[in-house]
Structure formats: structure tokens, C-alpha cells
Amino acid sequence: MTPCTLFIPRRLRLALAGLALLALGACGFHLKGATPLPFRAIYTNINLDSEFGARLRRTITANSPGTRFTDRRREADVYLHQISESQDLRQLALDADGRVEEYELNLEFRFELLDREGHVLLPPTTLLSVRELPYNDRIVQAKEGEINRTFKDMRNGLIDQILRRMSSPEVRAAYANASDRPVVPMPDDKLLDTSPPAGPAAIRP
């Protein structure tokens, strides 16, 4: 406690602290570089019950409180369509005995954003995440778990990139002038589960 605070009544200090907390709460969480989305309802084929999907929904609604997800495509303003996702593990460095010392982890996520009539607001976009991870074949099980956790972190890290793309000035302008955008056949809306593959990552010798 500083000398100045000794002269402030305890009740007043508590009141000031409460006001500060209220101010922070009113601000809410906003991802740096992202702005509220121009559309009010989103449909997606990403499984929102998966860990990735649930975090995607939380992040978008926190940054854009006026936007909600709907499970009926005809009620949505836009369709966030996941086209594909792939992950790859490759050897990056070997020691003198030919044993793996380092792996490179690659995660690729491809998506697009369409309005309800199929106008392209964001053309097919590929996000790529790459990590390097040291490896020790004496603790294979622990390293396999670390690889899976790293892929999971990489997958969650893509969410910020997705939100920035969706809230970009280009997408806002495209949504405002959707009738001028090219139209594509509406893709399949089958739900995709973006959970990490079951079991440990496959380690190649």
C-alpha cells in the first residue's frame, strides 16, 4: 500500500476498485486487429460442439456481440464453409546416428465465406500454421502427447486468423455490395468435426 492510499477510506477504495472492474467488463474482449462483423447470423459446417468449434463461436461472439450462430442455413446471413483441413508431421533434422532430432508440424485450414444466395464474400482461403518441435526417441510416449497438444494449439490459433479475415474491410465491402460479387453453387453443409485425430500422432522413424 502506498502512503497516499492510507488517507483514502476503505469503503471509497472498494468503490473505486468496483468502478474499475465495471469499466473493464464494459469494454469486453476484443481481438487486436478485428472489428465487429457486419452480419448478424452465421451458419457453418464446422461442428460447434467440438473444442475448435466451441472456441470459434466464443471468439466471434465476444468480438462481435451482435453476431450469433444458427443451425439453420436459411436463417443465416452468411455461410462460413470449411473446405478442408490437413495436418502433416515431417522430419526436420537427424543426428549422426540417423535418429530424428526435430520435427516440423504443418497444419493447413481452407475455408470460404458466402452469403445466403451464394455470393462470394471471401474466396477460398488457405491458412497455414508451422511449428518446429525437438524430439527425443527415449521418451516417445511423452513426445507423441506433446505433438498432439501442439497440433491442438495450432488449430486453435487459426481462429484468430479466421476472425481477422472475416472482419477485414474487403469482406465488409463485399457484404455491402454482395450483388456485385460472383455467385457459386452453395456447397454441402454436412457438419465437419475439426477435433484432433484420435490417438497419438503418427511418428515416422
Main pleated sheet: 5 strands, mixed
Distance between the terminal alpha carbons, to the nearest Å? 59 Å
Shape: elongated
Placed side by side, the strands forming the largest sheet appear as: 2-1-3-4-5
Number of strands: 5
Q: At the third CATH level, what is the topology name? A: Double Stranded RNA Binding Domain
Instruction: Let me know the CATH homologous superfamily.
Output: Lipoprotein like domain
Number of helical segments with 4 or more residues = 4
SSE class: alpha/beta
* Helix residue percentage: 25-40%
CATH architecture descriptor name: 2-Layer Sandwich
The pLDDT mean sits at 80
Q: Quote the beta fraction.
A: 25-35%
Supply Rg. Answer: 23 Å
Number of domains: 1
Series of secondary-structure elements, N-terminal to C-terminal? HEHEEEEHH
CATH class: Alpha Beta
**Uncertain spans, ≥5 residues at pLDDT below 50?**
2-7, 13-29, 197-205
Keywords: Cell outer membrane, Lipoprotein, Membrane, Palmitate, Signal
Subunit structure: Component of the lipopolysaccharide transport and assembly complex. Interacts with LptD.
Function: Together with LptD, is involved in the assembly of lipopolysaccharide (LPS) at the surface of the outer membrane. Required for the proper assembly of LptD. Binds LPS and may serve as the LPS recognition site at the outer membrane.
Protein name: LPS-assembly lipoprotein LptE
